[in-house]
């Protein structure tokens, strides 16, 4: 059985890609990797292919996968494409993680355990569940991230302390339910939308404390467009939620089968 896939979106991560892949593959063997690369001009995908060849010679090519997309289509759509692939391949759990070591790959085990052994459907690697655990971000970025959380909690009513977190483990059940929806955000607001939908569907969610350490190699792809999408998008998302019902899989009303007996019973 395929147990857990770590989806890593990449755009120009040539300085980090090999190290992060080798680190994840050094963890317990239940973690496979899917890199979703958006045509990185720096050759990130090419390096992944070289590693795939090396691993094939060692007999574990099945643990490293690559999805190449035509251009920079956004973090959210990269993850959605990765999640759909994971469900098609039959993985039980799927993790999100950045390529740049700002998330410590060792914490994957804690996130996975919180779901697989802790009975949760969503385990969030949380920077703010025990104070503020962010290292080396400029103070402006820490404040923006922290108050984005306050804003999201105020607008949505969802009590998650780190709604913009990008280090998460999902069960296949929650992803199956969420992906029935059109995920509207392409940038980092996608992270908020995923948690909001998990919460609306009533899935069990937990926050696992982590320390987020800013990257030392390569640059962040955060932009003002991504920021605006999050600010206005959260409001749209909340308003939109008034007009729909969220029914988790298995809880859908059973269709009534009409037979002569049921017709008689109804009359
Ligand atoms: N495929 C693809 N990957 C992308 C894209 N944009 C960013 N990425 C990849 O997504 C990961 C995160 O991007 P960063 O640009 O390093 O994010 P950050 O500024 O450090 O933001 C962190 O904080 C955000 C808000 O709290 C988080 O939402 C985000 O996940 C991340 O942890 C990296 O692996 C990066 O290469 C894209 O358009 N396409």
- Alpha-carbon Rg, integer: 20 Å
Based on Cα principal axes, name the global outline.
globular
> How much strand?
15-25%
Q: Into which percent range does the helicity of residues fall?
A: 40-55%
The first-level CATH class is given as: Alpha Beta
Main sheet strand line-up: 3-2-1-4-7-5-8
The name of the CATH architecture is Alpha-Beta Complex
Characterize the biggest β-sheet: 7 strands, mixed
Average residue-wise pLDDT: 91
- State the fourth-level CATH superfamily: Spore Coat Polysaccharide Biosynthesis Protein SpsA, Chain A
- Ligand types: guanosine-5'-diphosphate-alpha-D-mannose
How far from one another are the termini?
A: 50 Å
Order of helices and strands: EHEHEHEHEEHEHHEEHH
* Number of DSSP helical runs: 9
Number of domains: 1
Q: Provide the low-confidence segments as ranges.
A: none
CATH topology: Spore Coat Polysaccharide Biosynthesis Protein SpsA, Chain A
Notable characteristics:
single chain, 267 residues, alpha/beta, Spore Coat Polysaccharide Biosynthesis Protein SpsA, Chain A, 9 helices, 42% helix, 15% strand, binds guanosine-5'-diphosphate-alpha-D-mannose, DPM1-like, glycosyltransferase, Nucleotide-diphossugar_trans
């Amino acid at each position: 059985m395929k147990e857990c896939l770590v989806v890593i979106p990449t755009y120009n991560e040539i300085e980090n890609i090999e190290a992060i892949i080798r680190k994840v593959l050094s963890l317990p063997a239940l973690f496979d990797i899917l890199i979703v690369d958006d045509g990185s001009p720096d050759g990130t995908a090419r390096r992944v292919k070289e590693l795939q060849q090396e691993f094939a010679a060692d007999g574990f090519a099945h643990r490293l996968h690559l999805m190449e997309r035509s251009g920079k289509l956004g973090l959210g759509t990269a993850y959605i494409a990765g999640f759909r692939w994971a469900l098609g391949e039959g993985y039980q759990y799927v993790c999100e993680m950045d390529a740049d070591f700002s998330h410590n790959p060792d914490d994957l085990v804690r996130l996975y355990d919180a779901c697989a052994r802790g009975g949760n459907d969503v385990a969030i690697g949380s920077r703010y569940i025990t104070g503020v655990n962010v290292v080396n971000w400029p103070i402006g970025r820490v404040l923006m991230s922290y108050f984005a959380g306050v804003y999201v909690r105020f607008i949505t009513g969802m009590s998650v302390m780190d709604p913009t977190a990008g280090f998460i483990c999902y069960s296949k059940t929650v992803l199956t339910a969420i992906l029935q929806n059109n995920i509207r955000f392409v940038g980092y607001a996608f992270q908020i939308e995923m948690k909001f939908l998990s919460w609306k569907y009533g899935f069990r969610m937990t926050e696992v404390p982590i320390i987020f350490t800013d990257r030392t190699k390569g640059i962040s792809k955060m932009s003002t467009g991504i920021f605006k999408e999050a600010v206005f998008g959260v409001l749209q998302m909340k308003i939109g939620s008034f007009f729909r019902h969220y029914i988790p899989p298995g809880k859908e009303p059973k269709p009534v089968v009409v037979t002569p007996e049921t017709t008689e019973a109804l009359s």
